[in-house]
Write a structure and sequence with these properties.
binds pyridoxal-5'-phosphate; single chain; alpha/beta
Length: 383
């Protein structure tokens, strides 16, 4: 079944359609099983058991222990919680290292912290969106509380070498947080082998509804809760848990693990066919970012001489959804901070669109999408 109907939904890095299997798993907890997982009677214990199952499913997707999974409301909360904790547990460590291409969940948080007097070192990227690891190593100081580096970029799909970054952080004795919101469900994750302290993920990027996320907290790491209140989440996240959505996140992770191998190939084939089709049929199309280290579902393309916002609106009128920059910057006149950090001119950044695919896209959608984009670019270029 295709939840998209006739819509060409090529914006899966913004959010994904809910998998019917996920919705089916959630429904009992929205209908009958309304118990509070902290209650001691039967329906409370049922809810607590459902959450334990979900915690195990998320842990399986991450390659960590179930006890290291803390449920949150979204990826943004997870990243905020990691940064907050790292700055709170050791008052002698108040310096942060992050990159200029982070999602606003990290970027804006660090900008705010800078205004409050914390010192932030911002790492740049090269023209392909890659980090300089020597620069990262040099940026870490005695008083560094945390290195926060995204695993994969939401706009370009460029994957940072988290394994190597984890080795550097370990050598230097500092905490590492990675924003893996765009990674989980798309490429394998094995935290057991990585040895980092925090990882953020978000349900709605992997076919679960919006409003649920998780934070991995390494069991050897001191952690202090971002929200104060009840002792939920083992004291690591106060607030009554969103049981149905937690169950959904668990199921979404289970499906992702089951399908990962095959999807990496199939979704990549769709992305590549789309990219190749456009590059063959339209002049002046350039791929943004490192093509050798990229999420299999994402392509960011510059259409030389084309205003991306105009193209985006035209495609929307024809029933194709994609994105100009990240969802948060789309609709604004500012060119994407990620493309700008890669050294692009305003004009090139403003001529870029991101297309991102998922298991619910098909070959025939890709074919229709190619001819639609070809027609729309010709129309915009003709003025
Ligand atoms: N980090 C990345 C890389 C993202 O792409 C997003 C969402 O677009 C987020 C964080 C924020 O996640 P959420 O929407 O669950 O707060």
């Amino acid at each position: 079944m295709n939840p998209n109907g006739d819509l060409l939904y090529f914006d899966n890095n913004a959010t994904t359609p809910v998998d019917p299997e996920v919705l089916d798993a959630m429904m009992p907890y929205l209908r009958g099983h309304y118990g509070n997982p902290s209650s001691v009677y039967r329906i409370g214990k049922e809810a607590a058991r459902a959450m334990d199952t979900a915690r195990g499913q998320v842990a399986e997707a991450l390659g960590c222990d179930a006890g290291e999974v803390v449920f949150t409301s979204c990826g943004t909360e997870s990243s905020n919680a990691a940064i907050h904790s790292a700055l709170s547990v050791d008052r002698d460590r108040q310096h942060l290292v992050t990159t200029r291409v982070e999602h606003s969940a990290t970027l804006k948080t660090c900008e705010l912290l800078a205004k409050r007097g914390y010192e932030i070192t911002w790492l740049g990227v090269d023209g392909e969106g890659r980090l300089d690891l020597a620069e990262l190593r040099d940026a870490i100081r005695e008083d560094t509380a945390l290195v926060s580096v995204m695993w994969a970029n939401n706009e370009t799909g460029v994957i940072f070498p988290v394994e190597e970054i984890a080795t550097i952080a370990r050598d230097k004795g500092v905490f590492l947080h990675t924003d893996a919101v765009q990674v989980v469900g798309k490429v394998p994750v094995n935290l057991g082998a990585l040895g980092l302290q925090f990882l953020s993920l978000s349900g709605h990027k992997l076919h679960c509804p919006k409003g649920i996320g998780a934070l991995y907290v390494n069991r050897r790491c001191r952690f202090t809760s971002y929200l104060t209140g009840g002792g939920q989440g083992g004291g690591r996240r106060a607030g009554t848990e969103n049981v149905a959505y937690v169950v959904g996140l668990g199921k979404a992770c289970e499906v992702a693990v089951r399908r990962l191998e095959e999807e990496q190939v199939e979704v990549r084939a769709l992305r590549d066919a789309f990219e190749d089709g456009l590059m063959r049929s339209i002049s002046g199309v350039v791929v943004n970012g490192d093509r050798d280290s990229r999420l299999p579902n994402t392509t960011s393309l510059s259409f030389t001489g084309v205003d991306a916002e105009t193209l985006l609106l035209l495609l929307d009128q024809n029933g194709l959804c994609c994105s100009a920059g990240s969802a948060c910057t789309s609709g604004s006149i500012h060119p994407s901070h990620v493309l700008k950090a890669m050294g692009m001119s305003d004009d090139r950044a403003r001529s870029s669109l991101r297309f991102s695919f998922s298991r619910f896209n098909t070959r025939s959608e890709v074919e229709r999408g190619i001819s639609m984009v070809v027609g729309a670019v010709a129309k915009v270029r003709a003025g």
